[in-house]
């Protein structure tokens, strides 16, 4: 399984890198057809899906444990959303940024062990798998929202589409709902495994900060006063908070949470 | 007339206050303060004492707030602020939800969000009830033993205990067969393992955090002191003042190098406590049962087995409110998502974004009109000046 994983991981990485390069070139060279970039990204998504199914079959559980699998899952979500946006809203100019985020995520994934390991009793529960899968899906969507905010802040390259606000809204809203499910599943899992749905642990507390932050963003996102740069700042700051909750806490604090890199 | 004016003023003021209280931005402002307080406080608390969280988790929140927090003041000040902000946030959410029912009860759209609000209010109510009336305790049980759990009004019996080992012999999990009694009447029974506690109402018994299982001692025959019993962590003294102790245990099925369990690593210490020799004795087929240690012939008699676990017992009367709230909250998100996806499909529908964008545009149009009219008036003024 390890060899297949390495091959498919590198193939997906290559396809996303090509999609990023091509879509950047397409921004400057008008005669380059945008569908080639979309199709290459789609091929990357299919490759990752094949890898996901194979690892699921080999491990008999949804492969979302450990650094490699969680980052793969994150990359898959970002790429899928980018491909969806490029087909639905013709947002081909968004592909370069999304593909670069995907490539970064896959490169980070490569730092983790790629073997398929059995679940330890503590994480051998559907609640854990739901918790991680929805968390990383939400992280991916919050990342997409932040990228869209960067685009909106510095000007949309290529032809203006007018749909970027809607794309951002979809990313924030669906991301928030997925993150809510992650919090519910995580709390229920904590209750069954450790004795309380609420624990005073740094990862749990910062996850609640994140949830409340995006609750606030959702409350103001359609208010006229918050349109334009304020919403862009909120989306970018939100993703910075995501990165700190996921990476920063693991680096700064000693925590037993199994989702943080290094645990 | 004056009386009417006063009444009108009071009505206007009440109405304005209500609008502020139920305004989403009020909730957002309190939420931001809550986030900043928790973020800053959590980091400060950790750097002040890295064990802060573990200590906090050991008590129900209310108990911690009453007994522990005052001792760590002013480090714990942020927790008090957090409590105040939490109640303010909940009040804002509650008023917002009431306002929704008063203003929009006939509209199906928006029920998802209201369910999310209601679910969260229930979760908070459950948390408050659990913190105020909850209790946490531990009970140390040996296999076959029944003991009351302090402050819980129940007794627990450990009927059976087993350790789940990996193919390499590494302990993975434990399975405890427990019976719960209340007033000498059996009220619950079940096997407890990781992620599968024994739940009876608001009382939950978790698998042991700490346990001993299998060989915990040995009866030895010695050439100088006769039969001697040695237990883990307890030295047994020979007649000449030297001591025997257990340096390590291999349980049945475990293996380290060439030695196979069940067996013990036996140490002999001189009068000063220094290790003078060691040997491995095992009852496994083919392994040595007799050895010469420090001039003493030692024979393995009987390995002593026992199982003992430290079980956590939690009582949280609010947990069912929390679970109900979570279900309502989850349903609310599904409803909201369904509504949202409907908006995406129906492009012509007047949704939030279009409204927001239109409002912004109308404001801009207004400013543009003003600029144009001002420019025109200034132009005509200049023309007039030129004509003059």
How would you describe this protein?
The complex is a heterodimer of chains A (263) and B (388). Chain A has 8 helices and no strands. By secondary structure, chain A is mainly alpha-helical. Chain A has one domain (2-252). The longest helix of chain A has 31 residues, at 164-194. Chain A is flat. The two termini of chain A are 23 Å apart. Chain B has 388 residues and is of the alpha+beta class. Chain B folds into 3 domains: 9-134 and 327-337, no CATH class; 136-212 and 310-319, no CATH class; 215-305, no CATH class. Chain B is built from 8 helices and 17 strands. Chain B has helices at residues 2-22, 24-48, 52-57, 61-68, 77-104, 111-133, 319-345, 352-387; strands at 135-142, 146-148, 155-165, 171-182, 185-192, 198-200, 203-205, 210-222, 226-231, 236-237, 243-250, 255-256, 259-260, 263-269, 275-282, 290-293, 296-315. In chain B, α2 packs antiparallel against α5 (77-104), α5 packs antiparallel against α6 (111-133) and α6 runs antiparallel to α7. The longest helix of chain B is centred in the last third of the chain and has 36 residues, at 352-387. The two termini of chain B are 56 Å apart. The interface between A and B is large, with 50 and 52 residues.
Write the layout of secondary structure elements.
The complex is a heterodimer of chains A (263) and B (388).
Chain A: H1 2-28, H2 35-59, H3 66-88, H4 95-109, H5 126-154, H6 164-194, H7 202-220, H8 229-252
Chain B: H1 2-22, H2 24-48, H3 52-57, H4 61-68, H5 77-104, H6 111-133, E1 135-142, E2 146-148, E3 155-165, E4 171-182, E5 185-192, E6 198-200, E7 203-205, E8 210-222, E9 226-231, E10 236-237, E11 243-250, E12 255-256, E13 259-260, E14 263-269, E15 275-282, E16 290-293, E17 296-315, H7 319-345, H8 352-387
Antiparallel strand pairs in B: 1-17, 2-3, 3-4, 4-5, 6-7, 7-17, 8-9, 8-17, 10-11, 11-14, 12-13, 14-15, 16-17
């Amino acid at each position: 399984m390890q060899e297949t994983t390495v091959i498919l991981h590198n193939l997906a990485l290559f396809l996303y890198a090509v999609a990023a390069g091509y879509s950047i070139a397409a921004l400057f060279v008008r005669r380059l057809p945008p569908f080639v970039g979309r199709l290459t990204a789609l091929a990357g998504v299919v490759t990752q899906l094949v890898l996901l199914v194979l690892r699921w079959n080999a491990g008999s559980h949804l492969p979302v444990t450990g650094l490699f699998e969680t980052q793969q899952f994150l990359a898959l979500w970002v790429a899928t959303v980018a491909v969806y946006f490029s087909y639905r809203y013709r947002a081909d100019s968004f592909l370069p940024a999304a593909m670069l985020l995907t490539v970064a995520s896959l490169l980070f994934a490569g730092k983790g062990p790629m073997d398929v390991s059995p679940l330890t009793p503590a994480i051998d529960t559907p609640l854990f798998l739901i918790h991680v899968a929805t968390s990383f899906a939400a992280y991916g969507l919050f990342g997409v929202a932040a990228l869209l905010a960067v685009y909106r802040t510095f000007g949309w390259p290529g032809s203006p589409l007018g749909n970027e606000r809607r794309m951002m809204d979809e990313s924030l809203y669906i991301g928030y709902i997925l993150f809510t499910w992650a919090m519910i599943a995580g709390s229920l899992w904590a209750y069954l495994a450790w004795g309380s749905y609420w624990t005073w642990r740094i990862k749990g507390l910062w996850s609640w900060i994140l949830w409340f932050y995006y609750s606030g963003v959702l409350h103001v996102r359609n208010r006229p006063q918050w349109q334009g740069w304020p919403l862009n700042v909120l989306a970018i700051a939100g993703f910075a908070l995501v990165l700190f909750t996921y990476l920063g806490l693991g680096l700064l604090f000693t925590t037993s949470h199994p989702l943080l890199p290094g645990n | 007339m004056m009386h009417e004016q006063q009444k009108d003023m009071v009505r206007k003021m009440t109405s304005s206050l209500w609008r502020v209280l139920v305004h989403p931005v009020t909730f957002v402002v309190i939420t931001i303060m809550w986030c900043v307080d928790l973020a800053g406080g959590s980091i400060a608390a950790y750097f002040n004492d890295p064990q802060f969280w573990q200590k906090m988790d050991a008590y129900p929140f209310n108990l911690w707030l009453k007994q522990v927090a005052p001792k760590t003041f002013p480090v714990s000040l942020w927790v008090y602020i957090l409590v105040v902000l939490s109640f303010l946030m909940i009040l804002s959410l509650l008023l917002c939800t009431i306002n929704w029912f008063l203003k929009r009860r006939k509209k199906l759209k928006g029920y998802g969000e209201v369910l999310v609000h209601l679910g969260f209010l229930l979760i908070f109510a459950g948390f408050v009830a659990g913190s105020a009336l909850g209790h946490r305790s531990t009970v140390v049980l040996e296999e076959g033993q029944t003991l009351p759990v302090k402050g819980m009004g129940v007794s627990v019996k450990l009927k059976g205990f087993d350790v789940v080992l990996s193919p390499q012999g590494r302990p993975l999990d434990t399975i405890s067969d427990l019976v719960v009694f209340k007033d000498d009447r059996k009220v619950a029974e079940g096997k407890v393992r990781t992620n599968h506690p024994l739940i009876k109402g608001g009382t939950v018994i978790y698998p042991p955090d700490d346990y001993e299982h299998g060989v915990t001692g040995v009866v030895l025959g010695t050439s100088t002191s006769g039969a001697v019993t040695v237990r883990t962590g307890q030295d047994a003294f020979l007649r000449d003042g030297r001591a025997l102790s257990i340096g390590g245990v291999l349980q049945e099925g475990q293996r380290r190098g060439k030695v196979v369990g069940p067996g013990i690593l036996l140490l002999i210490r001189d009068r000063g406590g220094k290790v003078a020799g060691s040997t491995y004795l095992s009852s496994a087929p083919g392994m040595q049962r007799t050895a010469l240690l420090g001039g003493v012939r030692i024979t393995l008699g009987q390995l002593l087995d026992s199982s003992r676990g430290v079980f956590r017992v939690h009582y949280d009367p609010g947990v069912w409110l929390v679970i109900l709230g979570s279900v309502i909250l989850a349903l609310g998100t599904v409803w909201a998502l369904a509504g949202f996806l409907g908006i995406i499909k129906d492009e012509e529908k007047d949704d939030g974004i279009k409204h927001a964008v239109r409002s912004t545009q109308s404001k801009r149009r207004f400013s543009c009109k003003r600029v144009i009219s001002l420019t025109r008036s200034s132009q005509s003024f200049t023309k007039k000046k030129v004509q003059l």
